Amino acid sequence: MSERRHEAGEVVLRLQGITKRFGALTANSDINLTLRQGEILALLGENGAGKTTLMNILFGHYVADEGRVEVFGRPLPPGNPRAALAAGIGMVHQHFTLADNLSVMDNIRLGTEPLFSRGRSRTSVRGQIEQLSRDFGLAVHPDARVGNLSVGERQRVEILKALYRKARILILDEPTAVLTPQESDALFKTLRKATELGLSIVFISHKLHEVMAIAGRCIVLRHGRVVGEVFTDATDRAKLAAMMVGGEVAMPKAEPREAGPVLLQLEQVTTPDKGASPWLKRVDLALRRGQIVGLAGVSGNGQTAIADLVSGLARPASGRLIVSDKPVDQWSPRQALGHGIARIPEDRHKTGTIADFTLTENAVLERYTNPEFSRAGWMNWRAAEAFARNIITKYDVRCPGPDSRIRLLSGGNMQKLILGRVLEPGPQIILANQPVRGLDVGAIAYIHAQLIAARNAGAAVLLISEDLDEITSLADVIHVLSEGRLSPGFPRSSKTPAELGLWMAGQGFERVEHAA
Amino acid sequence: MRLEPIANPSLARRIGFPAAALGATIVTASLLAMIAGADPFKILGLIVKGAAGSKFAALETLNRATPLIFTGLAIAVAFRAKLWNIGAEAQLYAGAIVAVLLGTGAIGSPFVLPVTAIAAMLVGALVLLGPVLLKTRLGVDEVVTTLLLNFIMLLFVSYLLEGPLKDPMGMGWPKSTALVKEARLPRIVDGLRLHWGFGLALIAACIVWVIQKRTTLGFEMRAVGANQGAARFAGMPVNTVLIQSALLSGGLAALAGWSEVAGLKGHLSLDLSPGFGYSGIIVAMLAMLNALGVIIAALFVAGIFVGSDSMSRAADVPTYIADMLLALSLLFMVLAVLLARFRVVRG
After folding, report:
1. ipTM score here?
2. Which of residues 210-229 of B touch A (CB under 8 A)?
């Protein structure tokens, strides 16, 4: 593996003493980094470690408080994305920056040509794009509308966009977050090819196995500081994990258990098309007592529709939703709460909490009509505050106090409050939609442990996640969603990640349909 | 440049910025006065004197504040739930019409006052019910519907004053028959114009404050206004809450019209409200939608109204100086309220 080392290559990018503060928070502290020609450098760190901030400084979105950036030996003027582009830096953001209503070619050309010019011929642009697609193994049709492309294809367009602008340094921010395992492998092939063609790559990630698979060298960030710099062939995943987290974190494991009776069931459920999210197509799903059911799949394949059904926001257009052996005809969030369904929403900022409300107010948001907290329309704020204090201590929510506004809390602490709010009443059924997205390892371990404990106490848990590792480590039964279709349930460890990846890409469903 | 919320604004910040706004208003007003050819110091003195310089002036300010407290509360309640009621003017006139319909002899004493008050609130609530149902059922923008209802209501009042409600003894003026004595709000101080409507406005502000802070309805209204998606997810009946907010808002605005007729004018005419429904928006914004803040904001706005009216007469400067002064003070104050809670960050 030592051919992955590029000690001899010329230095193309040098960051020296970069420091960036946001108010009291130091996002980057005295960071030094060099990137050599033809290497893939991984920037590894937890959420909030400062990876994205550092790259935004490099690309000119932020101005560093201290430090300097050199590209190909020349200093880069700060705070100027145009200068970064001109210097040959291309960035592929975590969230794509493409216009859905334009073609692939127009998206790539966008912003590269002056408003008034004699114009380059479209054929020459097309020729260049086709040449780049061939060279780098990035297959996309130049005339396809971006809105019709899959997520993997969109990412290819983003990379092509950077290459078309003559990028010599590619920065990819969590590029595999939205890809199936197979798509990730294809991306890695493209990246290796790119380094052979002389490009240098910074690969930002928090996934250890990817870093080990693709990068030659790895820089680990923690709390805004560089805590380690290693060659990947001289380390292993455990060492990297310890470096990233600053100590050992034992991830909770769910021991197999006997499942009980069905508590909630979707029977041949179909939902109407709501713009971006696809139909659910005759979905059968059963949640059993004492069992974690994992829903795997690339986001946007029907996860939202299922979450909305279970949480009470939507009703099936056809088919039945059966809760505790009775088909429901009235269904709303309040009904769902009444049936003892605990709901951890996907977006804790927009759906789970009200940012300007206090912790106390957010703690009783779902249960303020409970006689414990209000009588005849009068709020009992003393009881509500006691409830919030109880959650704060029991679930280790770090905050100034129950009267502080929840917008001041970190994502992990916000999620712990939501967790406490929904788990305290002792729910029968738990919907956990992306419960650990964007959280650090400590918070992830905590939330997973709580979900496992709830399952062991007899709750039926539905875990929806884009992270296949999370699903395979927690779920007793795994279903895969692809374009609104739900795969059969696979028992724990009966399928490899690659096999699940094929289902995520839509293969496997055909066989089922043929057999039917 | 962007704004970053400050976690816990210091007291100095919360008092300093509004004080600075007041200072900026005074400076700009002085400049305007100089342009108009008057002595700025004299003008400021005249405004203060006109608003609070005598018992008569102070009571006049309180009187003027009464409808502003009611409409300010109406707007505060609606805006808190993010229901953009721009139609307080229409609801005000609805309350005034009811006061006249029931107060000119239709009902005997001693229940006339409470009956007309409750009826006025109901009718005012109904006026806003239409727009809010259009909003919750069909998604029609309530800014447009409530705003347009203002004009419809004014034309309707004009029709009533020329027709069914016209005072036969009115010498041809478009005004209604006068209220009977039992339907009039008594004065707080004998011989001076301040009536009990002011006391009721203060009570209404306290009640609204209690509703917002202590009841489940208030909790729902605040939640729906702050984040409708989260409120819906949490199981709150969002549409019902919007309708309840509208009913309360419309009822409060109607009380403004009712108290003007029953307390001050004694009859209905087209000049009953010099835009109290719209000024209520200013009052509510200045108060940051806080019910008790509405009292202070209404007194401030009423003081500027009354003071600059009296100033323009005494100093012989155009009356629009008064209007500009009010607009400026509002702009500065809104900016100050913003700066007290946010800091400006470059980049």
Report:
1. 0.86
2. 214-219, 222-223, 226-227, 229
